Amino acid sequence: MASTITHIKRARTPKQKSDRREIILATAKVLFMEAGYEGFSMGLLSKRAGVAKGTLYLYFGTKEEVLLSLYSQEFERFCNNIVVGISPGISDTDFVSHLYETSLSDPIFMPLHARLGTVIEQNISVDALITSKRIMATHFHTMVTELSEPLGMSFEQTLEALSGISALLTGSYDGSSDSVIETEALPEDVATFMGYFDMKVRFEKNAGYILQGIRSSSR
Question: What is the rounded CA–CA span in Å between residue 210 and residue 165?
Fold first, then answer.
């Protein structure tokens, strides 16, 4: 691998640098899917991406800066995908289900989302934080604008609803666990109790309450 790194041409033009950055992020996504947050390192990334470690640090100062940039890409994709397929008058149940399925359709979005405020953003520069937040705010506000009419809510109501649902999504994901036991094999009372903590059920039910509460508060 070291010889591969030696023979890679240095990125000199803005386009070459942009292309190199995209290669690094594409490699980072695969590495994160394989290794998770704990196993992800700048050393592994430099080897996988075929760039010297010193070169990697010219693009990203820490592994958290890599993951923040990766999350920003996934967040933009998430916002775009939420809007796709939404029609005027969509029911709260269908909207919440669509949002839930979209959040889990990308294998790295929720693992990054759950660590965003507590880990990733705690280990980056203030400048990197400001830049990323402004980019994400643009995508978020565009999504809110696109969803206001289909949901039958004002911009402010939709903003409040999606902010609350985002926090709920994080909490639901943090508290979830993948059970290896088939509930059909359990006594009914035990299966019912375990169902109380099912991520999908818990999220969709409480997200519906958020939408209903915001609508009722404006009457």
Answer: 7
The alpha carbon dihedral of 159, 160, 163, 165 has a sign of negative
pLDDT band of residue 183 (cuts 50, 70, 90) is: low
- Identify the CA nearest to 208 among candidates 157, 172, 165: 165
Sequence ranges of the domains in the chain: 1-60, 62-217
Under 8 Å between Cβ of 191 and 183 = yes
Q: By C-alpha distance, which of 44, 33, 58 is closest to 1?
A: 44
How confident is the model at residue 213, as a pLDDT?
95
User: pTM of the entire structure?
Assistant: 0.82
Question: What is the rounded average pLDDT for all residues in the chain?
Answer: 88
Tell me whether domains 1-60 and 62-217 share a fold.
no
